[in-house]
Amino acid sequence: MEALLISTGVVALAEIGDKTQLLAFILAARFKKPLPIIAGILLATLVNHGLAGALGAWITTVVSPDIMRWVLGGSFIAMAIWTLIPDKIEEEETQVAKHLGVFGATMLTFFLAEMGDKTQIATVALAAHYGAPLLVVAGTTLGMLIADVPAVFVGSKFAARIPMKLVHAIAAAIFAVMGLLTLFQVEKLFQ
Fold first, then answer.
1. pTM confidence score
2. What stretch of H or E contains 182?
């Protein structure tokens, strides 16, 4: 259950102000059809994060636990730094799927925008850390929806009222704490 809850919270916070959330704003403004947009976001996230979760689970089978601890700790700290860097959305990301309809355009642009994005990398790291890829993918997908569904319904007016720097600082702090806890093997203190 911890894997699900942490994955949900971390990704929901990291997604606020992320380029995929900005993409949700743009698609909602352009198409004005929230349900196909939300369905496209859901499917794109499930596929993208499913692949990331599988990669995270696979990594634990080929890398020793001690090396994995250092890689994961470093990854979480890198995620903390990356979270503090504001995202921009490229116009071609919203133009890439003009002829696919609202659902298809959303699914394709979200899938492509999420490739190599911090929430995808976080999914890999969380799946490797917890060893529960299905719970992590469920959590990261839920976190994406928590952040992106309101963006679809409320649009850019809502974004202006969110203190992005504070939200990014909180998400970065969570990633940094997870990195330090992993590096220093704090969980062994409680065994």
1. 0.74
2. helix 164-183
